[in-house]
Each structure stands twice: as structure tokens, then as C-alpha cells.
Amino acid sequence: MAAVQEGLQVDEARRMILEEFRPLPPESVALPQALGRVLAEAIRAEHDLPPFPNSAMDGYAVRAADTEGAQREHPIHLRVLGEAAAGHPFSGAMEPGTTVRIATGAPLPPGADAVIPVEDTDDTWGPGRSLPPMIAVFRAVRPGEFVRPAGEDVARGTIALEPGTVLTPGALALLAALGRFEIPVHRRPRVALLAIGDELIEPGRPLPPGCIYETNRTALAAQALEAGGEPIVLGIARDDPEDLQRLLDEAAAHRPDLIVSSAGASVGAYDWVKEVVGRHGEIRLWKVRIRPGKPFAFGHYRGIPFFGLPGNPVSAMITFDQFVRPALRRMGGYPRWERPRIPARLAEPVSSDGRETYFRAQIFYKDGQFQARLSGLQGSHILSAMARANGLVILPEGIRTLPAGATIMAEVWVDLQDLIETSVILPSVALGRAL
């Protein structure tokens, strides 16, 4: 059994944890269920896209040479052979001096090499209008003009999407255009979530004296979903080692990729995580130099990676974000697990105790730079500051204070471009220093 690492720095702890995780094996999912998933294999085009030359405009398919010299004052007249519509190609071949009326997206008839837009002819094309025997062409076109060539988007045999691509709506549209329906993606990591504490009550039930509603499973399940995982929300274990083992065994029976508990990982008289996990597994990491969130454990229970998070809700969410989320992103095959980090100007001073400290903050763009102010009181039980935050500002280890106006690294939870474009500053809130 490996020695327990205790009191590591944040980066050291995260590096140690991530060494254990690799992308999960691929599975095939249907195209409508693939949004946000990560491609596990390259997608090679089995045909050209577009699959045939087609018209980019409503108009007339022509031989470009037949339009040479055409002007509005001196039009060229062409004989109309027929028409081509999307899904209904023209069945004949064009000869010199002829044309075919064509709709946007319709295949270019054999012999044609360009399209004249309808507005550059004397046709007043509209619904139900019959095919004219002749048209007058008011301009010349070059070969290929107003034509979408076969393979212009993706050529047959080339790689359309690389492994590791996160499937956006645009990527799904491309896969559909290539005729793909079953898509190889990395499996979503399954996360079993449980809480510990005699004082915890399920939301929706009456609240007895001295008790509080359990919030961590709700928050952590949402964080797991956001990270690309599938949460399995289990129950609440009492402050009793046998009840905790019962719930851990229930978690293991679901065969998850991770087990995450909240509370019980400190050193109090009712904190049983270290002992109970050690019965059927190991604790490899105990405590991290992070604020909030020092009571943190990582190890294995019955061979399944286990994270023991603090009980205070903000501490649980911060440690999930900094340690569990990276593991989930790596297992899900995402090319990056890191959130964007940017320099921001502090709108007010911050201070801590020398540990690497994560302040909940409102990050905004003003006067040509990113700025940050605290989103409320910073106690590890203050959920309103988490609700108002759109990111974190990070005071490095060993630095106890920074003044207003100093530059600090901010970890952003929202789209940076949206942050710049909206430049919305949320209302000021009461500030606090308690962590």
C-alpha cells in the first residue's frame, strides 16, 4: 500500500490525482444524443460533401461560354430544355445554346458549368409559373460561378473530424451531412454521490430542530453533469462507521467510475471516512493546502477511485471543481480539463492565511481590462456568494494579502467573449473576509 501523502499543495495534489486517470473506452451513441460528447475516433468522409455539383442560386444552369458578351442592353437568348429541382435532377444533357431552370441545391445538369441567377434573366420566376421556352440572359458568367463543387466542403476519404473533438451543434450537422448516425464517443464517467451527517435532511421534508437541508449532492450532481459526467445520487449516511460502509458498498454496487462523499473527511470525533475507506481500500492523499477545502481525501474503495470532500458546501464545491472535475474531464476524453484563467484587476483588497485561496467573485470587463470584486461573504458555508459568482480569483500560496488595484489570476466559469460583450457589472454586495 502506498504511503499517504498529506498536506500537498494544490498543483501537487491535482497532478498526483490525474496520474491515475485516462480517457474511458469508446461507445457508440446515436447522433441526437451526441451533443457535448467527445469523439473517440477520427471520422473519415465516405463521400464528397456536397456529393455532387449543385446550384448556389435559383436561376438557370448554363454553359459559361454561351453567355460571353451578354449585357442588359444586348442580352443573349437561350433555349430552355427543362428544369432541375432539389431531389429531382434534370435527366438530359445540355447542348450549346441551351439552358435548364435550376433551384438552389439542385444537381448541375451534365454539360453545364455555371448558373445565371434568375434576377439576371428576363424570367419572373415564382411559385406555379410555367417554364418559358426561351430566356434572355443579361450578364456573362465564368465557369464555376454560382456553383458549389462536389467535395467543396469535405472531400471523400479525408478526415472530417479529429479524435478529441467536442461535438457542437455544428459538428453534429456535419456528421449528419456525411450520413453518420452512430458516433464513436468516449463513455461518460459515472459518479456515485453520497453525503454524511446526522444533521442532514432531504429537501422537501420538515426540518427538525438542529438540522439543516442537505445541499452538497444537489450541487455536486450539477457539477458532475457540467463536467460531462453522469451522477448517481445516493442517500445520506449517518455519523456511524457501519452506516457509512453500508452506503459506500451501495455506491460500489452501481459500478461507478468514481465515488464522491461529502463530510466525514476531517479529524473530528464523528469523521469516519479515513477509517472506513481503509477497511476495503486505501487513502492515498489526506488534506490539501487549499482554502476553502483543507479536509480532503483521495484514495480507492473496493478498487474504485474515491474522493472525500469537506462537508461545508462551498468547500465541497471548490474541491470538486479543482480535483474531481479535472479527473472527469480526462475520463470523458476532453482535450482540456482546465478552465480559462485570465489576469484581472482587483476592485478591493483580499487577504487569507497563506494557503492557496479561492475567492468567489464577480468578474467583469471595464475600461479595457478584466476586473474582479468578491461576490459576497467568503465563509465556506455562504452559498449566496457562490450563486452570485461567475468565477474565482486565486490568491497563491504564501501570499497573505493583495491590495485593491493589484493583478490576480481569475478562473472564469462563463464564456469570455460574452463577458466582454455584455460588460455587465452585478450590483455591489456586502463584503466579508471570513473564510
Q: How much strand content do the residues show? A: 25-35%
Largest sheet: 7 strands, mixed
- Give the overall form: elongated
CATH topological fold name of the largest domain: Molybdenum Cofactor Biosythetic Enzyme, Chain A
Whole-number total of structural domains: 4
CATH architecture of the largest domain: 3-Layer(aba) Sandwich
Q: Average pLDDT value?
A: 93
E-strand count: 28
| Helix proportion | 10-25%
CATH class of the largest domain: Alpha Beta
Report the radius of gyration as a whole number of Å.
31 Å
Distance between the termini: 35 Å
Number of helices: 8
Based on secondary structure, the structural category is alpha/beta
Uncertain runs are 424-435
Strand order of the largest sheet: 1-18-20-21-17-13-16
Describe the structure.
It is a single chain. Helix content is about 20%, strand content about 30%. It has eight helices and 28 strands. The relative contact order is 0.13. With about 425 residues, it is an alpha/beta fold. It folds into four domains: about 5-25 and about 190-330, Molybdenum Cofactor Biosythetic Enzyme, Chain A (3-Layer(aba) Sandwich); about 25-50 and about 150-185, Molybdopterin biosynthesis moea protein, domain 2; about 55-150, Beta Complex (Molybdopterin biosynthesis moeA protein, domain 3); about 340-420, MoeA, C-terminal, domain IV (Beta-clip, Beta Barrel). The longest helix is centred in the last third of the chain and has 19 residues, at about 315-330.
